[in-house]
Design a protein that fits this description.
The protein has helices spanning 2-21, 23-26, 34-44, 57-73, 132-149, 173-181, 215-228, 247-251, 279-297; strands at residues 85-86, 96-101, 108-114, 159-165, 189-195, 205-209, 231-234, 256-260. By secondary structure, the chain is an alpha/beta fold. The protein has one domain: Zn peptidases (Aminopeptidase, 3-Layer(aba) Sandwich), CATH 3.40.630.10. Strand 3, helix 5 and strand 4 (159-165) form a beta-alpha-beta unit. The longest helix has 20 residues, at 2-21. It binds zinc ion. Zinc ion is lined by residues 114, 134-135, 168, 196-197.
């Protein structure tokens, strides 16, 4: 009797100490692991997915995979929509996919990444452009973020919206359609963070473009990085701003930034394989982005 009581008391103390001494363990953001990112990159960039070209059945399959994972995580379609699929004007295209954690106000923080890649080569031993870094990595980040968003108990003022774009490789087809068709009014978007290739190069370095035009996003990323500890290289490749899906939004005056790694030897090659990615870098970039987005979305006190 005595020993049981003591043990119970001891366990209570340990439990108390655990819950108080390591608050970061409690933050669901830390459930994002390199292994989780790698598993989704491996699936999306597998030969079975055939490169996820935006006019292929595998492109549509990738869209379905993303929407299913987001729905499982508890995200919902955009206001006024009954589906996470947002088709472009051309029914041959795989759709954009968009979902959100709804906020209490009519403002939006967007986190985006394209999920499409390239059609197979006509000949050769390896014909499939797997696109593991470009951009299964950014897509896996969006899936990991959804799982965290579904676990949050805090309410936020802004809705946090995840968008997986189609047809980026074909010339920003999906992002241009989204920006022009405005399923969310452009003026209500307070910030957009686009991820495209986040898993190669130096294991602790990510490149940030657009920060001078979006100081609030830059500040939120700096604050988040106090917890994540990446080396963030700013403004080294300003031309990148026009090379990925942030471009149509920047043109319409939406504050937007771009996170990416530098081009590498497997960029747009059939050798952009999952076994070459750095899942640790992708996981850190995912956490960085989500922490910044949550700050920008403002928790409701
Ligand atoms: Zn890309």
């Amino acid at each position: 009797m005595h020993s049981t009581t003591t043990l119970a008391f001891f366990l209570t103390c340990v439990g108390f100490l655990c819950s108080c001494s390591s608050p970061t363990q409690k933050n669901p953001i830390h459930t994002i692991t390199p292994g989780m990112i790698l598993a989704d990159v491996e699936f999306l960039s597998s030969d079975e997915m055939n490169g996820r070209h935006y006019r292929s059945k595998e492109g549509k399959l990738a869209a379905k995979y993303i929407a299913d994972e987001w729905e499982k995580a508890g995200l919902v379609p955009l206001l006024g929509k009954t589906s996470m699929y947002l088709p472009t004007n051309d029914m041959r295209d795989s759709p954009n996919v968009a979902a959100m954690l709804q906020g209490t106000e009519d403002t939006y923080i967007l986190i985006t990444a394209h999920y499409d890649h390239l059609a197979p080569k006509r000949s050769g031993k390896d014909r499939i452009y797997n696109g593991a870094d470009d951009n299964a990595s950014g897509t896996a980040a969006l899936i990991a973020m959804a799982r965290v968003l579904g676990e949050l108990h805090t309410k936020y003022k802004a809705s946090i919206v995840l968008v997986a774009f189609t047809g980026e490789e074909a010339g920003l087809v999906g992002s241009e359609h989204f920006a022009k068709s405005e399923p969310i009014p452009m003026r209500s978007i307070k910030a957009l963070i686009n991820l495209d290739m986040i898993s190669r190069g130096d294991a602790n370095t990510i490149f940030l473009e657009g920060s001078s035009g979006a100081p609030r996003i830059a500040l939120a990323l700096s604050n988040a990085n106090k917890e994540i500890g990446l080396t963030i290289v700013r403004g080294k490749h300003p031309d990148w701003l026009y090379r990925s899906d942030q471009q149509p939004f920047l043109e319409l005056g939406v504050p937007a930034v771009f996170l990416s790694v530098e081009d590498h030897e497997d960029y747009h090659q059939v050798t952009d394989h999952a076994d070459k990615i750095l899942p640790g870098l992708a996981a850190k970039t995912t956490k960085l982005t989500l922490l910044a987005a949550l700050e920008l979305a403002h928790p409701v006190p």
